[in-house]
Amino acid sequence: MKAAVLRGKKDIRIESVPDPVADPDGIIVKVKACGVCGSDLHVYKAEGNEGTIFGHEFSGEVAEVGAKVSDITVGERVTAVGFRPCGECFWCKQGKGFRCSALALVGYQLPGAMAEYVAVPSAVKGRNVFPLPEELTFEDAATVEPLSISLYSVKKAQPREKDIVAVMGAGVIGLSAIQILKSMGVSKVLVSARRPSRLQAARESGSDLVIDAATQDTVAEIMAATGDMGVDIVVECAGSPISFDQSIEILRGGGKMMLVGIYETPLSWDPANVINKNISLIGCLGGNFPGSIDLLKTGKVTTRNFVTHRFPLDKTAEAFETQISDPGAIKVMIIP
Ligand SMILES: [Zn+2]
Ligand SMILES: [Zn+2]
């Protein structure tokens, strides 16, 4: 089959690779849509990841099921998350493979969905393989993974109706967070982002205030919008050191910072403000696929207008460059 293979720093090539074979407890999915993710970009821009086939935000049709898989059928429309626990570590030995310290992920250590087919190991319906209701297109379904991170993070923040929440960064995760927070009825959602397309999408998603971080002072705008009190919760999706520092500045005493974005460069920060303001820094690695599929199905959230560009598999390299630098790009999809 054809696959997009990383052959060096910023060097993706289309190659012919062996067709994947299903594990006895795994499945093979014929890929119909696959999103380019910010996490992919970090790996794409770094040295030493030769051989990676990206793609963890995908959907498709089940093409093959392993001998031990009984509840998934060929032809089913699905989205899935793929990982293989090491089987050796402390958590694996307790049967808690999902906490494995050396988890191999589809799209990084295991071949991903920027290919015609992708193997999903340890396939269990409802746990890591999710059938699609007919309301969802394959493209909708390929946004379920980032949406699920958003839903997980917002729920973990436990926002109250009187809370003012700031969302830093407006990719699919941040934009979905705005819609989820608005559907929960929080008092106000204030957003800081860059790129015209994202600012526009943040407005359309129902934000009460949208700040253009490229031309406006995020901290000053948020303090002015909150009567100098700051916000109760920050959902930090930008993953930039500046955004991290700003988040701590705009939080009021006792506030919570939900850490969602991945930092490309190491942070250097002074914990004094975190201590003095009694701020909670909360890591958010997790997802909620069933909840996210339901949000899309019921229309409480729509990610459809976040998909700004589509490329065939042959043009995966162009898709990555578009996701990195096109001012109009929110989510770029590969349609194999
Ligand atoms: Zn992702
Ligand atoms: Zn393990």
How would you characterize the overall build of this protein?
The chain has 336 residues and is of the alpha/beta class. It has two domains: 2-143 and 303-335, Quinone Oxidoreductase, Chain A, domain 1 (Alpha-Beta Complex); 147-283, NAD(P)-binding Rossmann-like Domain (Rossmann fold). The chain is 29% helix and 27% strand. It is built from eleven helices and 17 strands. It has helices at residues 38-45, 90-93, 138-142, 144-157, 172-184, 196-204, 218-225, 241-250, 272-276, 289-298, 316-325, and strands spanning 2-8, 11-16, 27-35, 57-65, 77-80, 83-84, 104-105, 117-120, 129-131, 164-168, 188-193, 209-212, 231-236, 251-259, 280-283, 307-312, 331-335. Strands 3, 4, 5, 8, 9, 16 and 17 form a seven-stranded mixed beta sheet that branches. It has a six-stranded parallel beta sheet with strand order 12-11-10-13-14-15, with helices on both faces. α4 crosses α5, α4 (144-157) packs across α10 and α7 packs parallel to α8 (241-250). The model has no long low-confidence stretch (mean pLDDT 96). The structure holds zinc ion (2 copies). One zinc ion binds at residues 37, 39, 56-57, 145-146.
